[in-house]
């Protein structure tokens, strides 16, 4: 089942070029906001906020 507007851990990992394990670590460390809906789901806005917080611009 796909939830509109939410990304899976796999999708986030692919987008960032990281492993799914590392994404779950970042979620546990509260660096990426996520919601548990059966499995972890990330809103695109929260992913963008994480990316912006990591950029040097």
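Sequence proposed for the structure above (57 residues):
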């Amino acid at each position: 089942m796909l939830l509109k507007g939410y990304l899976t851990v796999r999708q986030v990992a692919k987008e960032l070029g990281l492993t799914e394990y590392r994404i779950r670590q970042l979620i546990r460390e509260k660096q990426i906001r996520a919601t548990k809906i059966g499995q972890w789901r990330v809103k695109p806005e929260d992913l963008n906020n994480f990316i912006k917080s990591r950029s040097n611009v």
